[in-house]
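Course exercise 7: structure representation. Students receive a sequence record and must write out the corresponding structure in C-alpha cell form. The form below is the worked example handed out in class, using Lipoprotein (198 residues). Read each field label carefully; the graders check that inputs and outputs are placed in the correct fields and that the protein name is recorded exactly as given.

STUDENT ID: A-19
EXERCISE PROTEIN: Lipoprotein
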Amino acid sequence: MLDGITFDQAAGGLGKCLDYNKANRLPKDPAYTDLGKPADYRIILAMRSTGDSNAPGDGYFVVAVREKPVPTRLICTVKDGAAAGLNTSGGDPFGDAKTPVVPDINSGKLYQQSVIDKGNWKLPFRWGIIGGYRASVATMTVSYGGGAGEVVLDHGWFVATGTLTKQVTAAPHLKGYDATGKLVYDSDQDASYEKTLP
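STUDENT ANSWER:
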C-alpha cells in the first residue's frame, strides 16, 4: 500500500472492481469470466493514479492476484469512489516465456501516461510495474528516468515502484539476480520487453 492508501481502501476498491466486471458483462456473453470475490485475491499493489488527457481525473490503482481456480491478475482504476477501468489476465503469468523474470505485458498502464501527452506528463508521477519471477531470482532492481525504484518479491510476483520527476522516453529497466548475486535477467536483453515508450 503506497501513497497513504489503506488496506481497507484497497480492499474496498477491489470489491468495486469485481462488481464493475459483473455489471459491465454483455447479456449471454460467452467470453464473460466471473472473477470471484475479494477474499479470493491477494492485493500486491495499491498506489495513486494520475489522470491524463485520455483518462482525466486522479484516483488510485489496485493490483491483485489469485491462484485458484485459475491464476488471475487484475489491474483496476478507482476514481471518485467508483471503478473506472479494469484489465485482467488469466493463466500462467509466464506464458511461453523461458526467462526468469517476465514483466506483465499490461504494466504500461502503471508506468505510462497517455501517448497524447508524450513529453508533457504531469510530474511528479508515481509509477509501478509488475510481473512474474522464478525461484532462481533472489533479488531485483529497477531504474526509471535515471532514478532507482524499489522492488518487492511476493510469492512469484514482483512489484516495482518509484516516482518520476522528469519526462522519459525509455521504459523501466529491470534486473534480476540469483542468491549469489549473479545477474540472471536484464530487461535490456529481453526481446519481448518493450524498452521504449510509444
